[in-house]
Fold:
Amino acid sequence: MAEIIGITNRKGGSGKTTTSVNLAAELAIRGKRLLLIDLDSQNHCAIGLNVNVKKGTPTVHHLFRNSEARLTQAIQSTVCPGLDLIPADPLFEHGMSSGDRFRLAKAICEEELDKSYDIILIDTPPSLDDLLMNALCACNWVLIPFIPHHLAAVGMQNLVRVLFKIKSGPNQQLKILGFLPIMLDKRIHQHRTVTDGVSKQFGQWRLFSGIRTDIKLVEAFGFKCPVRLYRPKSRGAADYAIAVDEIMSRLTQF
Ligand SMILES: Nc1ncnc2c1ncn2[C@@H]1O[C@H](COP(=O)(O)OP(=O)(O)OP(=O)(O)O)[C@@H](O)[C@H]1O
Ligand SMILES: [Mg+2]
Structure:
């Protein structure tokens, strides 16, 4: 059965999509059968993986408009071998969904996507809406990328409260995989203070080493491929490779 990992943080611009695309690519290159689902109608995963989404192209958001829609019809292969994408619909307006928190979970299970892939990653929008609830009800792990600033720390405490509510209600399988600092610079006092705080509050073992600032990660989206294919020797590629080592070791401990 696939491990299903939601990549989430309600704060915008915290590295969710960069992490989704680059973790997915690194895992696929290591031989995992990988499916990335993009729930954010900004549709950035498709851009970063060179997938064309035209008007009428099936997307994950069709599920929330049409009870007959099937996820399997929306699967596309990407520039990265072994990595498939279910893209987002750039025309989908958040708030338009049906109110069924389990729509995505049911589709993954009924269409047996959890048997066809080793890992399913879900990139989420920066909002607390039905789409995020669908992601959190479909996954068994949550990975939280965050920029180590004070406001991010406050936001994460609120997010963790939401996660505990979901774990004690609609999705008892939900576990926090860990916190991934983004654009981390350990020379910056604020970064050390915030990451130390996360480690104390949630456990050292839940804090991943982190991703340093690297312009190659930004450029890679312009070149429509993950950093591992665009600049395999970059800092960004090296840091996401370490993140995958850490994630795989955590997944196998449980
Ligand atoms: N390690 C990094 N080094 C440099 N730039 C980065 C890094 N990680 C992310 N960025 C840049 O930061 C910006 C926000 O990243 P990203 O789009 O991944 O965040 P997000 O959480 O998905 O945003 P949103 O909430 O809008 O979906 C982007 O311009 C991205 O290229
Ligand atoms: Mg995003």
